[in-house]
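hey
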């Protein structure tokens, strides 16, 4: 793996750590590609029940390292072109890949969580953060908009008005405010312990049900009621059949 994205496995957990602490884990294009590859490795591990995503050093991530990225404009262009079979480019897939995983992804956030770093955290299913964490949709400071899947996650989590407020002002907000508007799941003095505890609770449930629940809500966030109910039925039916088959097999043994 890259020197700046660390992956390790402990029991039924995968731990992904941004490891560029001297730059507050500023994201480079190389790191974005490594995040995509890392998610792919985890997806193939059927023994993994939860993923914990964190950052080494003083911050989770200060966002895209604009100066470094702008030093290679051709690389930006190459990675900006979407892959037709995925519908995302590298910048988007570095975040959205975590949404694609069947396992729950829990972000553990401290320090700065800005720009692309925030979009990465938002792509996790849950966010446990320290009281001194700070969040900013900071792209407007560079004359840009969030384009690493933030448009898909921000408004879903906090509503359009709050998403526009954070995006248009680029103002930093503290953890208490972020929790109040639903940007984060929980503020905790020990977010890693809180994340581990949640992972333990989820691990007691059927991995098929957990993966199906994640897929269900991802597919129906913006769908009509009719579409939502159809997806709900289609997602539930395999689970019912699996349970019936399991009971039938058990009754014959």
């Amino acid at each position: 793996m890259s020197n700046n994205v660390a992956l390790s496995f402990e029991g039924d957990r995968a731990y992904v750590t941004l490891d560029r602490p001297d730059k507050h884990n500023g994201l480079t294009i190389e790191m974005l590609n490594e995040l995509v590859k890392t998610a792919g490795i985890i997806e193939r591990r059927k023994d993994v029940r939860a993923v914990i995503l964190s950052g080494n050093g003083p911050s989770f991530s200060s966002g895209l390292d604009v100066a470094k990225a702008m030093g290679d404009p051709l690389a930006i262009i190459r990675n900006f072109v979407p892959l037709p079979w995925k519908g995302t480019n590298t910048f988007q897939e570095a975040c959205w890949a975590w949404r694609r995983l069947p396992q729950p992804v829990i972000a553990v956030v401290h320090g700065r969580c800005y720009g692309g770093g925030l979009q990465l955290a938002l792509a996790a299913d849950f966010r446990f953060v320290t009281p001194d964490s700070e969040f900013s949709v900071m792209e407007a400071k560079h004359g840009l908009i969030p384009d690493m899947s933030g448009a898909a996650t921000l408004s879903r989590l906090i509503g359009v008005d709050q998403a526009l407020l954070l995006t248009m002002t680029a103002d930093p907000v503290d953890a208490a405010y972020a929790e109040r508007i639903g940007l984060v799941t929980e503020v905790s003095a020990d977010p890693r312990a809180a994340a581990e505890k949640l992972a333990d609770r989820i691990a007691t449930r059927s991995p098929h049900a957990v993966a199906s629940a994640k897929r269900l809500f991802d597919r129906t966030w913006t769908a009509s009621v009719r579409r939502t109910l159809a997806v709900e039925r289609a997602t539930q039916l395999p689970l019912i059949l699996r349970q019936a088959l399991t009971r039938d097999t058990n009754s014959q043994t």
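The mean pLDDT is 93. The first helix runs from residue 29 to 43.
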